[in-house]
Amino acid sequence: MSSEVITKDHIVNIDMLDKNIEIKVGRLALGANGACEVKCGDTHILVTCCASREPKEGIDYFPLLVDYEERIYSVGRIPGGFMRREGKATDKAILTSRLIDRPIRPLFDTAYRNDVQINVYP
Q: Dihedral of the CA atoms 83, 79, 29, 66 (nearest 10)?
């Protein structure tokens, strides 16, 4: 892993299906190994990725955790009842995490055993 810290914003614009997708790197979540902010119209998503420095011993699988956390209070919907904060993950969040996990898992080397955690915050 590189210890280089990006201090300047890097912006990539992609035109896809008559929509502009803007990807910014280097401004948010500088403590993570990698982070980017993705914008498409009014939708903004922060994606962070952290990996352990040492591989996990005694396992024969790739320990990848994808966590999609939709904060409903960030869009003005406050849940009522006893639980005032976020509860367990919704079915939509679990399925979205799986949709992210399945395509990127084969991109890693089959011998890679470091813990990798990807967090997605819409």
A: 80
pLDDT band at 54 (very low <50, low <70, confident <90, very high): very high
Q: Which domain holds residue 56?
A: 52-122
Q: What pLDDT digit, counting tens, does each position of 60-110 carry?
A: 999 999 999 877 665 566 656 555 555 678 888 899 999 999 999 999 999
Output phi, psi for 101, to 5 deg.
Answer: -65, -50
Q: With a threshold of 0.90, does the pTM exceed it?
A: no
- Asked if 113 and 59 sit in the same domain, the reply is yes
Q: Are 5 and 32 in contact (CB under 8 A)?
A: no
DSSP conformational letter for 55: P
Task: Please state the φ and ψ torsions of residue 41, each to the nearest 5 degrees.
Answer: 70, -125
- Torsion, Cα 94 29 41 8, to 10 degrees, reads -150
Q: What are 15's two structure tokens?
A: 């035109």
Q: How many domains does the chain have?
A: 2
Helix (H, G, I), strand (E, B) or coil at 12: strand
